[in-house]
Design goal:
With 89 residues, this protein is of the alpha+beta class. The chain has two helices and five strands, in the order αββαβββ. It has one domain (6-88). The chain has helices at 6-18, 47-56; strands at residues 26-29, 34-37, 62-69, 72-79, 82-88. Strand 3 (62-69) and strand 4 (72-79) form a beta hairpin.
Amino acid sequence: MSSLDLSGFVSITRRIAADSEDFLPTMCDPEQHKIRVLEGVSDGVDYALATREWATGFGRAHYFIAYPSQEGISAEEYLNGERIAAVRL
């Protein structure tokens, strides 16, 4: 998983989403080989903002996030705090 790119993360995200009724926001740290799930987000909260703030708290230089949106699931890649790529599933 150390050479994981956004395409690979999207593939993982699609598999996870296919196996669940309610997709929860996720964060992937490719350097530590970890995928984390954000649970307990209240109704009405902006998933994009909540997921970005949560993922930033881990202090990683490179990571991916995915979260549910009105248009489906959004996936983003970050490097040194800057979003460098985004895709909707």
